Amino acid sequence: MTYNFDAERWRENQRALLAARRERGELSDAELAAAIEELDRKYDEMVARLDGTFQLPGR
User: Are 27 and 2 in contact (CB under 8 A)?
Assistant: First the structure.
């Protein structure tokens, strides 16, 4: 299986969306910080699942 998914790009896009929501007044500073913390947690979990799947057996 081939992955054409860029986890770093996904995280950057999600952070930009959160920043835009903050600028529109939809999130407070505290809510933004909590959302970024949750986003980083999800990113770390995602990377852990994706990490190493590209390697051939025995390497």
Answer: no
Helix, coil or strand: residue 51:
coil
Residue 55 placed within a domain: no
Q: With 60 as the cut, is the pLDDT of residue 53 above it? A: no
**Domain-embedded: residue 57:** no
Q: How many domains is the chain partitioned into structurally? A: 1
pTM of the entire predicted model: 0.75
Which residue's structure tokens are 């299986």?
A: 1
Does 2 reside within a domain? no
CA–CA distance, 14 with 43 (Å, rounded to integer): 10
